Amino acid sequence: MLQIGKYHTLEILRHVSPGLFLGDGDENEVLLPNKYMPAHYEIGDKITVFVYLDFDEREVATTIKPPITLNGFAMLKVKDANSVGAFLDWGLEKDLFVPFKEQMSKMRVGAYYLVHLYEDVETGRLVASQKVRKFLDNRELDIEEGAEVDIIVANDSELGVNVIVNQKYAGLIYHDEVFQELRSGDQLKGYLKKIRENNKLDISLQASGYQHVEPNANKILEEMRKHNGYLALHDGSDPQDIYQQIGMSKKTFKKAIGLLYKQKLIVMEEAGIRLI
């Protein structure tokens, strides 16, 4: 069988009245309905499709690209809800079901929620869960400190912002390292700052270490040139002011101006820094 919830590149085998039958070369076939057929094709052509179950629980292909795939995470809107569960809009004819037991609290129609897509082992159907944390596993890591990672914002916590790292790990950005608005479902790049005890991951939105200073130093020089060689920021400035003006953390800013000072490119003044 073809794996539902994923994309497959398949061969066009034959045209029948309902659409095109596609195959994977291992005698597995799936129907691509007429509405999704390409305008021009030939038997033997390859086409990439998403496979899922239709209303009759049969495998069917579509050229529509949903915002979430098997074992992935995404923010989706609730189209309908009842005592059994909620139904999410993911761009396909058949809405994505969230059982009531997989909801953190009762989902509201029209609201957006961060969910995980998985295949229910009992029914063989694609199902979504709002309890995203249980699908993250930090026991075995394949990333190292300093690595760039893909993150999805999950929720706020007492210590900071919980994030999903590389679609499979749980991570945390501490409050004092957040210098921009982060909302649940936001997807952005980050950096693995530290691996703590029990493989807990500290994530930063900015690269750390002196190997990353030079680009930031150049950015500061560019900003100074735009303002007649002067920038009203210094190593004692408020972190929020630094981020709003030049988009970097205070720690990164201090490293960058320290490098510029050593290179005798700037002088430190009481209220800011100035180009020499």
Order of helices and strands: EEEEEEEEEEEEEEEHEHHEE
Structural class: mainly beta
Spatial arrangement of strands, main beta sheet: 3-2-1-4-5
* Helical residues, percent: 10-25%
> What CATH first level of the largest domain would be assigned?
Mainly Alpha
Instruction: Name the CATH superfamily assignment of the largest domain.
Output: Winged helix-like DNA-binding domain superfamily/Winged helix DNA-binding domain
CATH architecture descriptor of the largest domain: Orthogonal Bundle
Total number of distinct structural domains: 4
Radius of gyration: 25 Å
- How many runs of DSSP E, i.e. beta strands? 18
CATH fold-level label of the largest domain: Arc Repressor Mutant, subunit A
| Proportion in β-strands | 35-45%
The separation of the N and C termini measures: 69 Å
Mean pLDDT: 92
The residue ranges in which pLDDT falls below 50 over 5 or more consecutive positions are none
**Individual helix count:** 3
Largest sheet: 5 strands, antiparallel
Indicate the overall shape: elongated
